[in-house]
Amino acid sequence: MLYFVGLFTSPIKAQQVYLSATAKASIEPKAYPFSVALAGYGYPRGGRFSLDWIKTNMKVEKVFPPARKQHLKWKKWIGNAIAFTIFKKIIYTADRNGTIIYTALEDRAPVWKKLPAVQGITSLSAYKGRLFALTSDDELLQLELGGKNRTWVRIARFNGLTYDIHLKAITTLDGKLYGLDQNNVVFEGHHKTEGNLSVSAVAISAAKETVLLVGADVCGFNNDFIAEVKGEILKKHHILPSAILINASHTHFAPSTQDWTTWGAHQLPDSVYLNQVVKPALINVIHTAIKNRKPSILSFGRAKTTIGKNRSLEGTAASYDDDVDVLTIERKKDHKKTAIFLTGCHPVFKNEGIGGYTLSANYPGITRNILEKEAGITDALFMQGCGGDINPVSVDYKKTGNELATVVKGILNAPMQQLTGNITFYLDSLNFPVKKWSDERIQAFKTVNDNGKGDVEAEKDVRWADLMLGLSKNNKVPVNMPVYIQTINIGNWKLVGLSREAVTDYSIGIKQLWPGELVSVAGYCNDVSSYLPTSKHIQSATYEGLGSFFWYGQPSVFPLDVYEKIISTIKTKNH
Questions:
Q1: Burial (CB count <10 Å: 0-12, 13-18, 19+), residue 100
Q2: pTM of the predicted model, to two decimals?
Q3: Could you tell me which InterPro entries the record lists for this protein (predicted)?
Q4: DSSP of 244-292, one letter per residue?
Q5: What is the pLDDT of residue 10?
């Protein structure tokens, strides 16, 4: 059922014409990196990875040369090694104790050097500066050969669903990863994916000002990464960072793109995926959107949705901003239409079964697809609202996506209010002092949790303690926790973007500052470094108000008046 609110007026006689364009690009991982960690959940303990083994009809000899011939050819170098590989004229060998050594093949008198050991190693391979190891526990590990801090990182593990075979060897051929099982069947490594991860950018100009609204199918990003992207755009197009708002959809089924510092090394972003796939895609869509701007008419509409619910609070405290906001951009010449739709709700569903290991844009991807197929929309872009404490009602993300698409189509079919006026933009930061724990308190916290039972929560707390003790030792504990507040005004529509995982109350409170006006609020903008709770969450010690700060590796929680200070700052500056 649709509930339309009183935003609409009679048709405007004189249409305001803006210059606008939309661009979209895939951020699906390529064949290399061979496997990436999925972000958004600390469970299961060993991580979720995209690698999916597909059975082939390839002959073993084509991919895996006979071991006896290999052994004879390189006998001088490998000795009693049980696994070896060659990369750029360097031979790497591993023995039964997991010791890994390497030397240059051209050296007449080999000088063997050591790498970090891997217990239970059964096979080695190398590709593009990385060494790969298969273990008897059916895990795949990788090591950056050129890195200063050489550490083996898990990139895949047996899960019985996508990684459901027991391998005895791995190798790379023509840029692809292959595995050989106990029956000498060759499997090719692929990413398990729905194929709908993307980034989109909309450029909108009026007079001499241009703003960019960018949406990305990632769980989150670090502020320094976004600063690099915006820096490239500033250099190339002279558009200020304050005019570029980059929003993460927060799907929990995209490759990790931010530093989950206490989740274990396997949850850190893959540098190849982050810097060779996501970063250039963001820069390219922004560049293309700027380049292709054409005269356009912009319109705004709003309706209500029932896809979400408050997951943490109860009774009157359980707020929910159920607005769905839609901005349409229709080109005057050919009437091609872009739709930006915004609502606040976590893109999650039960982290179970094969879906838990499948790359996916989740419900926003379903909605986008429907709008582009059924609603006359050429490009649909999702922006995540303040969904920090809001989960879908349904565990079926396809159902959620369909329900949201129905609401958006209803808005598109109803009268919408055209935007008129100039463009302005602002970017502020509000710094909250860190209440640092004493080293003694941190050490005691670590001792309590260091129980050796393999408990995910306890291990996370130990890693948090180690992180804080290391920062304290080097006098690098952050003094402040910044919250970035960005405002984009396009005529009579105001978009306020907050960093971090803002809970739903921020959207409700900010809209109340401008009653009766066209105001939308997005969280997950420019930096997703923790939750942004209110005193209700902090006092109730909900996940958003307490526990999540350990997962995010933050030095402390926010003060009780964090919400009031942010709302007061926005009200005072009146951007």
A1: buried
A2: 0.94
A3: Quinoprotein_ADH-like_sf
A4: EEEEE---TTSB--S--TTS-GGGSPPHHHIIIIIHHHHHHHHHHHHHT
A5: 42
